[in-house]
Amino acid sequence: MYLIIYYLTRISIPRSIQLIYVRFHHISLDDHRSNPEACTRDSRISWKVAGHKASDGLLGPLVDDSGRFYKPLQDDERGSREVTFYTSFSSNTRVPDHIRRFFPNFYGTQLLEASDGSGLRPHLVLQDVVSSHLHPSIMDIKIGSRTWYPQAPEDYIQRCLKKDRETSSLSLGFRISGLQVHGNKELGHWKPERKVVQKLTADEVRLALRKFVSSNSSADPYVVPDSLFASSVYGGSSGILAQLLELKAWFEDQSIYHFNSCSVLIVYEKESVLKGGPSGAQVKLIDFAHVVEGNGVIDHNFLGGVCSLIKFISEILTTPDECLTTNCLQDSERAVLTMGTATGSEQSIYNA
């Protein structure tokens, strides 16, 4: 939900405070009175690649160099609902230990200076799920054909329904909200525009999933993605597919929560794969502002979306070269190849 695509530039300023200029907003990390050391050493915004802008009254997240992520609580019921979920989930003995690894660790809440300098604001304190990655490639996938919660106001439901119909949510059960593929100094990063990514067709989603694990992910419309890293990232006993299947098995039985408008975050270390090392592929669930109690009913909305995503990734692993011929690269597919531009290594996208 909070995925944002932005440019990140660091500037050295007095008191070792880093001012981060972002494509859509800027965050000034200054005088964190509740914990002065918390967010002034390394303010790399880490796991957001699409979502709300930190502008127009919306605050941005903070990170520190100890592996913690500070997410500002929203003022309305969404903030309290997310705190309620994390508090409930962290202490719920019905959640198996092997499932907890798919969720960010929760360290409570903390008052911190807001990213816009407007004063102390409550923040969720969470695990920075990509802090162990030097150059992460990240994809945020919103799960479910329905992205509103049943008790939502009618106007909110209509807005969500309109967006679900305009994206692949309704037809596929999920939509790509944003992504970044780490490149090198020559290729740069491949980071499609968020609004374009969210309106991909089924064929374009399939192609984007291939590009995410390709060695030649560039904006060049004539470069066919080679899916070279598909087996390293998606496959294997600890790859993305195996992790999604583990999640699916839990969702087939769990009726504790309904995960409305939540996202699956897929992360891997492309630099390591390029050097023949492990991908470090991991799946994390994020964004729980619309989670409600399951009341003994299976969350078929989320389960269906996960099953659909599993199907798409499985097809890439079993038929890596399917639909990559010249005949398949028609105008609709070329849209996903050209929806972003390669940028230099000093530009990045991140955002939870």
Write up this protein.
This protein has helices spanning 77-91, 97-100, 154-166, 169-172, 194-197, 202-212, 230-233, 240-251, 270-274, 300-318, 331-338; strands spanning 9-12, 18-21, 26-28, 62-63, 68-72, 106-113, 120-127, 136-143, 174-180, 189-192, 257-259, 263-269, 282-286, 291-293, 340-343. By secondary structure, the chain is an alpha+beta fold. A hairpin with a 4-residue loop joins strand 4 and strand 5. Helix 6 (202-212) packs across helix 11 and helix 8 (240-251) runs antiparallel to helix 10 (300-318). Mean pLDDT is 79; it is low at 1-38, 40-47, 325-334 and 341-352.
Show the helix and strand layout.
Layout: E1 9-12, E2 18-21, E3 26-28, E4 62-63, E5 68-72, H1 77-91, H2 97-100, E6 106-113, E7 120-127, E8 136-143, H3 154-166, H4 169-172, E9 174-180, E10 189-192, H5 194-197, H6 202-212, H7 230-233, H8 240-251, E11 257-259, E12 263-269, H9 270-274, E13 282-286, E14 291-293, H10 300-318, H11 331-338, E15 340-343
Helix pairs in contact: 6-11, 8-10
